[in-house]
User: What shape does this take?
Amino acid sequence: MYWQSEYECMERGELELLQLERLQATLNRVARNVPLYRKRFAELGIDPYDVQSLEDVKRLPFTTKEDLRQNYPYGLFAVPLRDVVRMQASTGTTGKPTVVGYTSGDVRRWSELAARILTAGGVTKDDAVQIAFNYGLFTGAFGVHSGAELIGASVIPSSGGDPRRQISIMQDYRTTALICTPSYALHLADTLDELNINKTALSLRFGLFGSEPWTEETRREIEDRLGIQATDNYGLSEITGVAGECLERVGLHINEDHFLAEIVDPQTGEVLPAGVKGELVLTTLTKEAFPLIRFRTGDLTTLIDAPCACGRTLKRMTRIPGRSDDMLIIHGVNVFPAQIEAVISGTGLTDPHYQIVLDRVGHMDLATIMLEAPESFCTDSIKQSQRILENVRIRLQTELGVAFEVRLVEPRTIAREDGGRVNDRRKM
Amino acid sequence: MQPTLLSLKNMDVFYGRIHAVRRATLHVRQGEIVALIGGNGAGKTTMLCTISGLIRPGQGSIMFGDDDLVQRSPEQIVRAGISHVPEGRLVFSPLSVEDNLRLGAYTRPRFRHRASIAEDLETMYSMFPVLRERRAQAAGTLSGGEQQMLSIGRALMARPRLLLLDEPAMGLAPLVVRDIFRHIVELRDRFGLTVLLVEQNARSALKIADRGYVLENGRVILQGTADELLANRDVQRAYLGRELDA
Assistant: This one.
């Protein structure tokens, strides 16, 4: 099943011509409307006019998360703010998140892409789709939501929260497709066991999972325990609707008519050929409000050139096994250690030493900050140190959107060497 | 999806020292109506003239099906299946309406194609009944709208697969414009004709078009379905005359 077969199964030559046409128009727009690109192109002596083929994109500079941060909030918008109908946020490397704007056209295309990914994952208009992503600034819940509505499915925006509630909705509404993070899917499977509910009591057929890395073992476990076909999909908070698996489940089809994908060496930035693993770099081809040229995603993957049995001609990327930077994914939310550092330093603690400990309890992430008690704490009252901990916890929650446990440990018990800041004990 | 009928790749056009079209890449599929919109001097007319061979591109390729048109003469391009309806209509004023139409069939020698030409004339008259009424009248005495119909009819007499239409609405009353645009859709629906349309009247053009390209200073800055372009605020401000803040 296809949603837009005319694009998903387009002859490669035609697709590449369409990509070139859209790339050139995008470059003409960013060179005219986005100060960062105008300036950078001028400095490097690049004229969009020089881009005559898709390969020429190599000559353009990268855009990094740091660029996004420095241009917070609206510096990279290519349209006036009054043309923007939606804002969503993404996490930046330190402190402030970045804002991503969408025009009405962007929102419409986003929905179409989500509809493609849902269709590829088995969803049809006859499905009841339960979306257990958090509806908020940071997530793709809205994209899948409108994509599912576009298909004509019955959408259940159950959002995050208590798994028992999710399961009772799932039973009562006879949900047939589940959309959430893979770890939450396993958490729901655990809850089913606890409640002594057999998977056959559910009507589930398909599951589309994303926003955190997961393995083939996890897929098999989810498929087995929930009795569904599970597919992976990929997008970034900066660039949504990038890719999704078809039911063949061997790689994610990239929506190449909207995104130009390259794989580069994470160290040198050199473009790598198909089949070689490297960092995924994306150029948007149809974004109006927030176009990005050669954005470094930080995700490591490989492009697959070979045709897929499903009939789509869109190239595939292998599932994301890891990242080229230190970004952590906790409950599906992107968090950089530097952000945590910024929050802790901002609470008035002098020279704080801490460690970020990540565990998986059942199938859910548990994030703990082990904070070394400053020497001064010994003399302070317990009440006061409790207050400081509470403050750190609240600020982490509000600024990063992730719940952390914060614990005090004895002074000088945390190793000082580099790289010891993060202790990720979750088994991937 | 229909196959691509016309595709321009990296087309550069110079008008003397003016770089009128800069690296244009675009395509038109069979049976589509595609609109080129943009302000004065954006390069729209230049683009049509380059496709029909009246101007040579400085660089780039123009593919029509499997034919590369770049080295072809205008006559060869008409024979290949592209008819150009120029801006300002340019009918032969002293000649009768019917003679104007017959001239459009110049690629077919009359002595061998009498029957097919008569058949096509009949088709034109049935599509544009007003031309039948005025068949013996000098073309110069027709109204603007009638001249536009004649100009389109003349282009169709060459039995094109692709029609290039330059500003068909220019200088015409709104009701007449609506009529002309209705005819363009009819041409596509009835004869499977493909149309590349240049128009200052962006709203009317996008209402009947499937897709469009927005040109600015010879560059394509935006492309998309007609619906997408109609919804684009940049297009609304610049070309649809919609006052967003009002």
